[in-house]
Specification:
566 residues; alpha/beta; Rossmann fold; 6-stranded parallel sheet; 20 strands; 16% strand; globular
């Protein structure tokens, strides 16, 4: 006989869970106890907020390819975790959120902290289920694990009433399930069509993105593109899929993309889109957030082949010429192993796009006393190739997006969902998963304060990350929108911030403040040597709001439009 909590703990262990993120709650205390007593090898990380716990689990799934596990109690714990589930859904990260529910006897009575979580999580999860019988816990956990990893990966939510965890029953111990087979390789006729369309194209482009890339798949795509002289771009916040040192890599699409690259993409006549959706973010063609404008709707002028692990994102907005449900790794292998001749015009076209990227990486003037391109360049030279860099959401992220290249797979963690407060939980999760690697968080002052309490989690568990905090006293992205859309009138975007240096020290972390470029390198070295989590506050001039323009530039553009009657 085993309690439901013991069955749950055993099933998580059977499936290979090694870290559990949570904020302890009375509704699942017996589950935490069962994990600690029966499976002490599974680390239990007690966070400061359910959003942090959920975001850490999402980052774990994104980084490792295995489901990240988070436990939260019933409302408000579950409602606090919604943000992390939404991030996992939009970012296609495997994740399992386990929600402790009230006892079955008081369900549907609006009991204290109770809610219909199936309704709440339904639109943002791949599967939501409540386990009302402890004998079915193995079945539900096995299905949750498989669902999170199947097709387009994503989050699953399991709701477990408190008394189900406490009830004893006799149920067989599970064996580790077989790995579910993925969608297969493209058929021979599909490959023939792809290479026929490629042969007819004069300006082809390969676009790679999404989650679940293996080293083998990455190497196959890089060999395929290099051998045939094809340019490759990565989708938004998936820049680590391709080694930026390779001539085939030509940049990133999405928010803040290089305008010169976007102009070249409009010239393309064939696009091979692998493992990511043709979403609004990945089809921004102009301006700051004008999605679905890079290609014409519903029929782009380019011939497009779109390959996904399931059919959900195929032909959703753009009607493509060949929509394939196929495994990403098998597709990459098939493309790399297919004999094909290199065409000189393709190589010349690729070189043109690569030159655009090289010009994009040339440091541009930066307002204020901190030269951010120079800081990024120094960091890239100083950090090992396998250093993991995280970022949240804000205009500050454009500086690392433009000037910090990636060389190895699984070295970038950033939210496609647009979730502020992501980068600190993600950095903590990355360092726990890979304690031997350097982990650096880039974060804005507004973004940091949406999850800054998790610095206590980092200190408690000795998670020695380095936080690079941009303090410009603004919600920068929204300030840009105010300049563009409200004639510069500001409404709530100016921030009165705490003393971040003292805040770091109050949590028990190491703190540094940098106000000039030459101060950064020695401050960073002190952070590396501190032997504890560390924060470097960069005092940034508000003019340095974006890597492509200053606040004054935005005002000048607006004035010019008004002068021209636009």
């Amino acid at each position: 006989m085993r309690k439901g909590a013991e069955i749950l703990a055993d099933e998580l262990a059977v499936n290979g869970a090694d870290i559990i993120y949570h904020v302890p709650g009375e509704s699942f205390l017996v589950a935490l106890d069962a994990l600690a007593t029966r499976h002490p090898q599974i680390r239990s990380i007690s966070c400061r907020h359910e959003n942090g716990a959920a975001q850490m689990a999402e980052a774990y799934g994104k980084l490792t390819g295995k489901p990240g596990i988070a436990f939260v109690t019933r409302s408000p714990g579950a409602t606090n975790a919604v943000n992390g589930v939404h991030t996992a859904f939009q970012d296609a990260s495997p994740m399992i959120l386990i929600v402790g529910q009230v006892k079955r006897s008081i369900l549907e009575r609006e009991a204290f902290m109770s809610y219909d979580f199936r309704t709440m999580f339904g639109p943002m999860a791949k599967w939501v289920a409540q386990i009302d019988d402890p004998t079915r816990i193995p079945e539900f956990v096995q299905r949750a694990w498989a669902t999170a990893l199947s097709g387009r990966k994503g989050p699953v939510v399991l709701i477990v009433p408190e008394d189900v965890l406490e009830e004893e029953c006799d149920v067989a111990v599970s064996a580790r399930p077989a790995v579910a087979s993925h969608a297969g390789a493209p058929r021979g006729e599909d490959l023939n069509q792809i290479f026929s369309m490629l042969a007819e194209a004069t300006k082809p482009l390969v676009v790679v993105g999404g989650s679940g890339w293996s080293e083998a798949a990455r190497e196959d795509i890089q060999q395929f593109a290099t051998r045939l002289g094809l340019p490759v771009v990565t989708t938004f916040r998936r820049r680590d899929i391709i080694d930026h040192r390779l001539d085939c890599y030509v940049g990133e699409i999405g928010i803040g993309a290089n305008p010169a690259l976007l102009a070249h993409i409009r010239e393309t006549d064939f696009i091979l889109m692998l493992n990511d959706a043709l979403s609004d973010v990945n089809t921004i063609g102009a301006g700051y957030m004008e999605g679905f404008t890079l290609f014409s709707i519903p029929h782009p002028k380019q011939k497009i082949v779109h390959v996904m692990a399931d059919h959900g994102d195929l032909n959703r907005v753009f009607q493509v010429d060949l929509a394939l449900v196929a495994d990403n790794g098998a597709t990459a292998q098939a493309l790399a192993s297919r004999p094909a001749s290199r065409r000189p015009e393709h190589a010349e076209w690729s070189a043109r796009l690569r030159a655009t990227l090289v010009k994009e990486l040339e440091p541009q003037p930066c307002p204020g006393d901190i030269d951010l391109p120079k800081v990024m360049g120094w960091l890239r030279e100083r950090l090992p190739a396998d250093a993991i860099v995280t970022n949240g959401v804000g205009a500050y992220a454009t500086w690392s997006q433009r000037y910090f290249p990636h060389y190895l797979l699984h070295t970038q963690l950033g939210p496609i969902s647009g979730s502020m407060g992501y980068s600190l939980p993600a950095a903590i999760s990355a360092k726990i998963a890979h304690p031997e690697r350097v982990v650096v968080e880039f974060v804005g002052d507004g973004c940091f304060q949406m999850s800054s309490e998790e610095l206590a989690t980092a200190v408690q568990y000795g998670v020695n990350i380095i936080i690079v905090l941009y303090n410009n006293g603004l919600y920068g992205t929204i300030r840009i929108h105010e300049e563009n859309r409200l004639e510069g009138r500001a409404n709530g975007t100016e921030l009165t911030n705490p003393d971040f240096l003292l805040l770091a020290k109050a949590y028990g972390a190491h703190g540094e403040q940098v106000s000039r470029t030459e101060e950064f390198a020695p401050a960073f070295e002190r952070c590396l040597a501190a032997g504890k989590p560390a924060l470097i506050e960069l005092v940034i001039d508000p003019e340095a709001i974006h890597c492509r323009y200053s606040l004054s530039d935005l005002r000048a553009r607006r004035a010019a439009k008004e002068f021209n009657g636009e």
